[in-house]
Amino acid sequence: IIAQSSIPGEGLGIFSKTWIKAGTEMGPFTGRLLSPEHVDLFKNNNLMWEVFNEDGTVRYFIDASQEDHRSWMTYIKCARNEQEQNLEVVQIGSSIFYKAVETIPPDQELLVWYGNTHNTFLGIPGVPGTDEELQKKSRNDDLHSSDGPSSCSPSSSSSS
Q1: HSE (CB half, 13 Å, CA atoms) of 132?
Q2: Ranges of Low complexity compositional bias (predicted)?
Q3: CA-to-CA distance for 13 and 148, rounded, in angstroms?
């Protein structure tokens, strides 16, 4: 169900219609495939996920910023803390999925954060990065406001 997000200033979010069992995978996240050299890391890339090679290098980005490449998954918002997280992002093969980390009751907003299986970077907590990147990510998250789709993409650590 698409409705007003419980996250202030984030526009529309996705809510469960029925019970969702822990471990349920949703996806894949769809969009245009972009090679790393075609991505402007200084632009707001909040509708983009990185797909990694086995060695941890970026294979490509999945960009859902164009409306014709969006699915309902682009409206899933980022959890603000561990307590409200009910989905994690996982890479399976060369695709991105969201996986329920707990059983989710009907009418609960789906909120995603990074799982241990997704090697994220660009200042995301729990992975190597500079303090400056972490501070910039925090500042941008505080300033981010949108009425449209949003994701806590690792690529969103750049300025808006």
Answers
A1: 0
A2: 146-160
A3: 9
Tokens matching residue 144? 């981010």
Question: What is the torsion angle, in degrees rounded to the nearest 10, for the CA atoms of residue 138, residue 140, residue 142 and residue 144?
Answer: -150
Q: Is 139 helix (H, G, I), strand (E, B) or coil?
A: helix
Q: In the chain, how many domains are there?
A: 1
Task: State in Å, rounded, how far the first CA of the chain is from the last one.
Answer: 28
pLDDT tens sequence across 25-76: 999 999 999 999 888 877 777 788 899 999 989 999 999 888 787 889 999 9
Domain that residue 151 falls in: 2-157
Which phi-psi region, left, alpha or beta, contains residue 6 (left: φ > 0; alpha: ψ -120 to 50)? alpha
Neighbouring-strand partners of residue 106: none
Q: How many helices (H) and strands (E) does the chain have?
A: 1, 10
pLDDT score recorded for residue 152? 63
Rg of the chain over Cα atoms, rounded to whole angstroms, equals: 15
